[in-house]
Automatic annotation (TrEMBL):
Matching InterPro entries: GK/Ca_channel_bsu, Guanylate_kin-like_dom, Guanylate_kinase, Guanylate_kinase_CS, P-loop_NTPase
EC number: 2.7.4.8
Top-level taxon of the source organism: Bacteria
Similarity field: Belongs to the guanylate kinase family.
Protein's name in the database: Guanylate kinase
Native species: Gracilibacillus halotolerans
Function: Essential for recycling GMP and indirectly, cGMP.
GO molecular function, one term: GMP kinase activity
EC category name: transferase
Region forming the signal peptide: none
Subcellular compartments: Cytoplasm
Entry binding sites for ATP: 13-20
Organism phylogeny: Bacteria, Bacillati, Bacillota, Bacilli, Bacillales
Catalytic reaction equation(s): GMP + ATP = GDP + ADP
Alphabetic keyword roster: ATP-binding, Cytoplasm, Kinase, Nucleotide-binding, Transferase
Amino acid sequence: MIKQKGILFVLSGPSGVGKGTVRKSLFEKDTNLKYSISMTTRAMRQGEEEGVDYFFRSKDEFETMIEEGRMLEYAQYVGNYYGTPKQYVEEMIELGHDVFLEIEVQGALQVKENYPQGVFIFLIPPSLEELKNRIIDRGTETEDLILNRLTEAKNEIEMMDKYDYVVVNDNIEEAVSRVQSIVVSEHCKRERVAKEYKAILEGENK
């Protein structure tokens, strides 16, 4: 029986496009997916658990991991590091789980550099006008911040050539269905199946 390894799927796109909503809906439908747990140097909050909400590490430990190339991506935010540890992702993949990473564009490009065998999916809005409406509907940003986000979104959308797939998020259910189709398609790729199948054949011929 063919036992395939898992795959790292990276879902990215401009702020306000609905990455979190698509990812949440996808996880409700697919139990084999594992959400990539991030690592942080910020203090653990009440109710949080190590290895569930985050991997909590000291600043020195985190910086050592950066120096040793053990982070797929990382960034600093309000004086703390946040990032994706390579070991956790690789362990889940070896166990046959698909690992799903929902991340901003700059982080996704870091992952592509450090783990090019991942599958990169770019989520885009039906239009910039629709993206603007979604950001406004949040009710959390000032007019200047909305304009900054839209300018940044235009720049990020120009980076879609660096991704393997592009999914338009015009409807959550349809967007989730398209992402599910990508997952199935990737597992059916000849180079993934052939490697495992040939190993089985070699074992039978011994």
